[in-house]
From TrEMBL:
GO molecular function: ATP binding; protein serine/threonine kinase activity
Entry keyword annotation includes Signal: no
Domain Protein kinase: 1-308
UniProt keywords, alphabetically: Kinase, Transferase
Lineage: Eukaryota, Sar, Alveolata, Ciliophora, Intramacronucleata
Superkingdom classification of source: Eukaryota
Pfam family, one: Pkinase
Region span, Disordered: 1-24
Gene Ontology biological-process entries: regulation of autophagy
Descriptive protein name: Protein kinase
PANTHER family: SERINE/THREONINE-PROTEIN KINASE UNC-51-RELATED
InterPro entries: Atg1-like (IPR045269), Kinase-like_dom_sf (IPR011009), Prot_kinase_dom (IPR000719), WD40_repeat_dom_sf (IPR036322)
């Protein structure tokens, strides 16, 4: 008997009825009575509550401890959940994203309470899901529910295994901690609510009755590492309890004991229950730390195998979850730090992310957005950065460039970019769901800009101002429908909506020079909201004119002339006469054109004057500053500190000579024209409540008048959406407010698994891709050599698939057929489409979970398979040899064999040589190559082996061992052929066979190369001096593509790389750039011997050289920067394995070759698709109709591998 309640599991509502009564019934009461006890159910937060200085808003109360919140900076919803105050979530926050784990962003303290901020899933928890199914498992177990159980446990095992491998334990896991997310038709199960700190602090001694292992643990204190291991065991035990609860159909976590006896007998009818119960028993009986490692992975493999069998699926859709990177974690923490106001910490995290990966897209983009929104980059500078090559390579980067263009007023240019991306989608459907979602959002934006919200978007523009003189003032009226521009020669009135156009020009009479005053100020003008009244101040004598205007008929008639000084004295508001130092700073028609507002500076003291235009009666008041009448002071600032802060800012900017524009309606921002640098003036949008600049727009200047007295007149509309200023003889209209409809598309980017790809969708696309490749390969195998045109087209189709796969790396994962088609393409070169170089290496896998017995062990040797149908590698690590599948990254088997001096596959990948200091072993793969090999020959050798070599080419297999100046040659089953030695004062450094394995060549530490004939069992000719002196020949690589000549690429230590033609005693030095020089560890040539790869780890360089087979010159094609210790390539040069500097991690890359398609019709190549295969198959069927062609085998038949005993294996056990 065992219990399903352990640790501190949270109590859920006891029944469906209480769950449905819900939280709303408790809205008027803080407590309810449960068994006579008063239980507090008041929510920790109220609806619309704000946290983090108002950046988090509670949108919905889920229950008393859980809330859906909206983050105003991230423009996204999150889940906020109350947690114990002593909980620490750093490890959860630091965990890279994973499809089956809820992403945690932050731990927040608010009002004395602690909360976790995580991604919001859309499917509730597992208890709620089971309840929604209305099951009665005692009567019937639906087959679909059994599949759901398999799906759930597999995904939970994958997620928990990932957490454990990254040092994170849950500690309090049950089905209430399983969140469901629905992505299209896929259910994704996620582990959430990790409690690492509180679980680690729980006393283990009190839990002995709750789970088996606790009863067997030692007494006394535990180390942190031991406690962590015990909690990981507890998580596995809890997974078994969850499986049992799923099979029972439990809908809450009430505390009552359950056991296998609790299972409904209906499960006995289903064979599918056997693997589930096997897993269940293994989980709940786990009682030793040594049993933990690999347990969850074993559970996953077992259930996936039986899932495919029972439910007849060709693949498991969620086997490859989306996994984030450490750079994503740094970027996420930077964004959280920035939203919390810690810019310095955010910059540190971004620097750390860029240090890991300089071209990390999200980090680079978020950093640019931060600089743009902090006004460190202007709009133009920001878009210039987005236009760089890094962002243009990304579909999302290019799309964001279009979105930013729309947001900053370049609507037409932005729409053009977005429509171009949509058009490209029609030609080449991207498989990335992340890109598909992004393109769907682009379509929404285009719809919004062109149809639904088109009035909200502004197009930046320039118009001729039609002023002869310099524009002195720009004034937008109170409702932003009209605009006036003034100069000494005229006043122009412009209509802003529905389109910008000049509607009236009011000329100003040229004054008599004798009447002009030295102290004349700028001309000012304003129109009322309907553009029926115009007020003008000509800059002198304090006299204002008002005009009735009819702009449609181009009519303006004088209405009144107002002498300000006379009216003020008449109203007894003026003690002394105004003089020419009393400047009129601003005029504005307000109150439907009934009042003229005037701002006057008297001895720099501002006064507000309002004149009633009905009787010209004035009202005047003294102001603290000249901006006091602005709406930002009248309505926006409700606290004294904001007044003081804003005044300090304004006074500081005034001291620098800055100018201001205040919107009439929007009181949270204002616009500042900074004029410190006369050559680089810029407008800044200042956010009052955030006390920071939020936007910078560079002021365009007339290039013909640089350094001259350019006009600085400008204004903004009432909502601060549009900035209007002058540039030479033009008016510039620039958008400065991002429309609300597009704000959510310019949010910080952070990696959530659901934000990227749906693993199930990717798995389906991958399976479709594999089927197309299989069809392509099968079709090629059916074509006869005489069918040149059909074979060429089939190979071109393979080329398209290879290019498509390398551009969509998720299609390549777990795809052995892709690796096969890549080798097929290299084996059968297309004459009209030759290889001209290497574009790049594309990373398709990383082997970072290789098992090491201790921290001192390293990978000693790596051997890659090269046969067409094989895609695996052999690793030699401290007396053990491992076989790993290159496609799935799965370890297939391991066996003990000492291989300290050498290890290599040979004889078409059917045999393996392992060499120790005193022993040679030959292993043979029998029947199924996924089974461990059999030892078919072993030999105690007379020499102390320093190195061992074997030929991979030729009709006979030879093995050579060396020790100092001596060597022994073996063949067949380690039968001795002959032995020999070079000069006594020389030592052997390396051995290489020629292309046909008729000779082998020995490189020495004195720079010489000797040739030995295997048939003659003796040395032939004189040695070739690769270098004279104490310079050893470390590497000899045979170029098998050059027939009838022994041409080698040789590395001489300290003297570089050379091309050696042994027959002619010809040596050519290879020129390597000085900054790339260093010790060479690897050399590889492609089968045709046209390109050579040279690895130089000291300078992190892979040199790709073109080999001229006539002159034997190696010419550099390109250098690829890569951090590595050494590398191995397959014989077809399609895959390359890099070993890191610690020799503990391997990275698998695919070689992206560059082809010259100039001889291929581009239109034909683009239209080429799988229909050509169907046509070839139809022609083949017609050709062999009624005939049996035993020479042709289908691809599937060739790939079938029977088990060793010819019978299918079964992993099931019968419980019932």
């Amino acid at each position: 008997m065992f219990t399903s309640t352990y640790g501190n599991s949270k109590d859920h509502k006891n029944s469906a009825q209480k769950r449905k009564q819900g939280f709303d019934r408790l809205s008027n009461s803080d407590q309810i009575s449960v068994n006579g006890l008063e239980v507090n159910v008041r929510p920790l937060l109220e609806q619309n509550a704000r946290l983090l200085n108002g950046k988090l808003i509670v949108r919905r109360v889920v229950n008393e401890r859980s809330f859906i919140v909206f983050h105003e900076e991230f423009k996204d919803e999150f889940l906020l959940k109350g947690i114990p105050h002593e909980e620490q979530l750093e490890r959860w926050i630091d965990l890279p994203t994973h499809t089956n784990i809820v992403t945690c962003f932050d731990q927040i303290s608010h009002d004395g309470k602690m909360f976790s901020l995580t991604e919001s899933t859309n499917g509730g928890d597992m208890f709620q899901y089971i309840e929604s199914l209305n099951l009665n498992l005692a009567i019937n177990v639906p087959h679909q529910y059994i599949e759901t159980i398999y799906d759930c446990i597999i995904q939970l095992a994958i997620g928990m295994d990932y957490a454990h491998n990254n040092g994170l334990v849950h500690g309090q896991f049950d089905l209430s901690n399983v969140a469901l997310a629905k992505d299209q038709d896929t259910l994704i199960f996620k582990v959430t609510d990790f409690r690492p700190a509180t679980s680690m602090s729980l006393p283990l001694t009190s839990e002995g009755s709750l789970w088996p292992f606790a009863r067997q643990k030692k007494k006394g204190n535990f180390t942190e590492k031991e406690k962590l291991e015990i909690l990981m065991l507890k998580d596995i035990y809890a997974l078994g309890i969850c499986l049992l609860e799923l099979m029972i159909g439990r809908i809450c976590s009430n505390r009552f004991s359950i056991s296998l006896d609790s299972l409904p007998l209906t499960w006995a009818e289903f064979a599918e229950s056997t693997p589930l119960i096997q897993v269940l028993v293994e989980c709940i009986n786990i009682d030793n730390i040594t049993q933990r490692k690999g347990k969850l992975s074993t559970i996953k493999k077992l259930l996936i195998k039986d899932y495919l069998k029972f439910f007849q699926r060709p693949f498991y859709k969620m086997e490859l979850p989306v996994v984030g990177k450490r750079t994503d974690v740094c970027n996420k923490k930077a964004m959280i730090a920035l939203s919390n106001g810690n810019e310095e910490l955010a910059l540190q995290y971004w620097e750390e992310a860029i240090g890991m990966k300089e071209a990390h897209f999200d980090t680079q983009l978020n950093f640019l957005i931060y600089k743009w929104r902090a006004a460190q980059l202007s709009d133009d500078e920001f878009m210039a950065e987005l236009s760089k090559e890094f962002f243009q390579e990304k579909d999302i980067g290019k799309g964001l460039l279009g979105i930013i263009n729309i947001a900053t007023g370049e609507k037409e240019k932005g729409l053009q970019i977005l429509e171009q991306i949509i058009e490209e989608e029609k030609k080449d459907l991207s498989i990335s769901l992340k890109q598909q979602r992004f393109r769907a959002s682009l379509k929404e934006i285009i719809q919004s800009v062109t149809v639904t919200d088109k009035d909200s978007y502004f197009q930046n523009c320039k118009l001729k101002s039609e002023h002869q003189e310099k524009i002195e003032s720009i004034s937008i009226n109170v409702n932003s429908r009209f605009l006036t521009t003034t100069s000494k020669d005229c006043v122009n009135i412009w209509q802003l909506r529905p389109q910008i156009q000049k509607v009236l020009t009011f000329p100003l009479e040229e004054e008599d020079p004798a009447s002009q005053t030295k102290f004349a100020t700028k001309v000012l003008a304003s129109v009322d909201q309907d553009c029926k009244l115009l007020a003008i101040y000509k800059g002198k004598n304090f006299v204002f004119q008002t005009y009735n205007i009819d702009y449609k008929n181009q009519i303006a008639t004088l209405k009144d002339t107002i002498d300000l000084q006379k009216e003020l004295m008449r109203a007894q508001l003026l003690d002394t006469k105004l003089d020419e130092f009393d400047v009129i700073a601003e005029i504005k028609l307000i109150n439907d054109g009934k009042t003229l507002k005037i701002v006057q500076l008297r001895k720099k003291q501002p006064y507000m004057i309002e004149i009633n235009l009905f009787d010209c009666s004035p009202q005047m008041r003294k102001q603290e500053n000249k901006f006091e009448d602005k709406s930002i002071f009248r309505y926006g600032l409700t606290y004294v500190q904001y007044h003081e802060s804003l005044n300090v800012f304004l006074n500081y900017q005034l001291s620098k000579g800055s100018l201001f524009a205040f919107p009439e309606k929007e009181f949270q921002v204002l616009v500042v024209l900074n004029r410190e640098d006369k050559q680089n003036k810029a407008f800044y949008v200042y956010e009052v409540f955030n006390e920071r600049f939020g936007r910078r727009v560079k002021k365009l200047e007339n290039p013909l008048k640089l350094g001259q007295d350019e006009s600085d007149a400008f204004d903004v509309d009432l909502e601060c959406k549009t900035l209007i200023y002058t540039c030479g003889d033009e008016l510039v209209f620039h958008s400065i407010k991002i429309p609300d409809q597009i704000q959510r598309y310019i949010r910080p980017r952070f990696n959530q698994a659901l934000h990227k790809d749906n693993p199930a969708k990717i798995a389906q696309l991958r399976q479709d891709f594999i089927e197309k490749i299989n069809k392509n390969l099968k079709n090629f195998s059916l074509l006869l050599p005489a069918q040149e045109q059909e074979r060429r087209n089939c190979l071109l189709l393979m080329l398209k698939k290879v290019e498509y796969g390398l551009n969509n790396k998720r299609l390549v994962a777990c795809n052995p057929q892709f690796l096969r088609i890549h080798k097929m393409l290299m084996q059968h070169q297309i004459k009209e489409c030759p290889i001209v170089g290497v574009k790049d290496f594309v990373k398709i896998g990383i082997f970072d979970e290789i098992k090491f017995t201790n921290d001192l062990h390293r990978i000693k040797f790596v051997s890659l398979s090269s046969e067409m149908e094989n895609n695996y590698m052999m690793l030699a690590i401290d007396g053990t040899i491992y076989k790993y599948d290159l496609a799935t990254k799965e370890m297939l088997f391991s066996f003990k064999s000492q291989a300290y001096q050498g290890m290599m596959l040979f004889d078409e990948d059917t045999k393996l040589m392992a060499a120790d200091t005193q022993q040679l072993k030959l292993w043979e793969f029998i029947h199924n190559k996924d089974d461990a090999p059999e030892l078919y020959s072993v030999l105690q050798v007379p020499l102390r082996v320093e190195q061992a070599f074997v030929n991979r080419r030729g009709d006979v297999n030879y093995q050579i061992i060396t020790c100092k100046d001596s060597f022994i040659v073996y063949h067949s089953k380690l039968d001795k052929l002959f032995d020999g030695s070079i000069m006594a004062y020389e030592n052997i450094r390396t051995v290489e066979f020629n292309a046909n394995a008729t000779h082998f060549f020995v490189g020495t530490d004195k720079g010489r190369i000797y040739r030995y004939s295997i048939d003659q069992k003796a040395k032939e000719g004189e040695a070739v001096e690769a270098e004279i002196g104490q310079f050893g020949v470390d590497i000899i690589h045979c170029t098998i593509g050059i027939k009838d000549r022994d041409v080698f690429i040789v590395y001489v230590q300290g003297k570089g790389v050379k091309v050696v033609e042994y027959n002619e005693n010809r040596i050519e030095q290879v020129e390597i750039d000085k900054e790339r020089l260093g010790q060479v560890t690897s050399i590889k040539a492609n089968p045709e011997a046209t390109f050579v790869f040279i690895g130089i780890p000291e300078t992190s360089s892979i040199g790709v050289f073109y080999l001229d087979r006539i002159t034997l010159q190696l010419k550099i094609q390109k250098y690829i920067t890569m951090s590595f210790q050494t590398f191995e390539m397959d014989d077809y040069c399609t895959k390359i394995i890099f070993m890191n500097h610690k020799c503990r991690v391997l990275e698998l890359y695919s070689v992206k070759w560059e082809y010259d398609r100039s001889s291929i019709d581009e239109a034909f190549y683009n239209k080429l698709d799988d229909t050509i295969i169907d046509e070839n198959d139809l022609n083949y069927q017609r050709q062999f109709k009624g005939k049996i062609d035993p020479t042709q085998k289908t691809l599937n038949e060739m790939d079938k591998k029977p088990a060793a005993n010819g019978k299918p294996k079964s992993s099931s056990c019968n419980i019932f």
